Amino acid sequence: MKTLDELLKEGVNGRRVLVRADLNVPLDGKNITDDGRIRAVAPTVKALAEAGARVVVCSHLGRPKGEPDPAFSLAPVAARLGEILGREVAFATDTVGEDAENKAVAQEDGNVLLLENLRFNKGETSKDDTERAEFAGQLAAFGDVYVDDAFGAVHRKHASVYDVAKVLPHYAGWLIAKEVEVLSKLTGAPEHPYVVVLGGAKVSDKLAVIDNLLDKVDTLVVGGGMMFTFLAAQGFEVGSSLLEKDQIEVCKSYLGRAAELGVELLLPVDTVTAAEFAADAEPLTVPVSGIPTDRMGLDIGPESAKLFAERIAGAKTVFWNGPMGVFEFPDYAAGTRTVAQALVESDAYSVVGGGDSAAAVRTLGLPEDGFSHISTGGGASLEYLEGKALPGLEALEN
Questions:
Q1: Is 62 annotated as a binding residue?
Q2: Does the pTM exceed 0.70?
């Protein structure tokens, strides 16, 4: 695929560049609680603006239902993007309507314009190819060329991700190029020992990743809510912990396959339990063989955290996706903190797989530069590691 570097060499002064960004940031009302995705795409936008392009940025935020919803407006993002870039970012109160058109016409070389939420338009996410293509054509009218730097959306066959690239000359932004470079290392020829740490709520969300990586890793570490289905597969009582009964047999098959391959599938030996799912619930640490029937596990225990950290310390390559517990509750954040800190302190090539893992790094105040790479796309990075074809990347490679 062609990249931003090639576009900059061709020259963009005076040209209109439509940039698809992933500015889907968490909001508390109108306050941005984590600007990581804005900071991640800022270098691409800044480089284009400084090279004299007329930059029109588009993105989605949240899941509005195909019509305007003030709760999902990108207005706060425009202000924050301007602060990060150190230049004014104009904001259009619609996506392809009159305000967007007027502000795009008024743009001068080096200006940046952010359009309102793409998902305020039904054509963005439509499964009807004609409806999606029509909206893509309206978007494409804002650019002479198209740059996709929204890695967090490349697994979606949406108008701004897939169809616009059919209309305009297209390039991958620096963020997408970096993400593909990093993730290809994890699926290609990673340096061993290679450790994959998986957490999060549901084992069903990670089945395809486990299936695709099990024969490539030396150790697969499992924590978070998904660990209880594996523990149940081993015959343990898991109390009222999160459990996917329909996945128990699948977990048994993975345990057996790991043994056949000589891969260590490492599960927790203890867990921090609570009587209810609440931040102020009294924690009680128990071995996984002694989980009370009336309690639920909300974090891996200290012995498990120590064990997981030891595996990370001995690794050359580590991929981590999914927290080890309910890190939003202080009493149940220790497992996630220990695993993340072990990655920071290790000499391994360490990749954090976006989503809740990236949020945990920032919430817990860990240094982002302590990791080799923090992905901006949780779902996209997982699907890449599953070996799936991602529509957004296919469009750029065409």
A1: yes
A2: yes
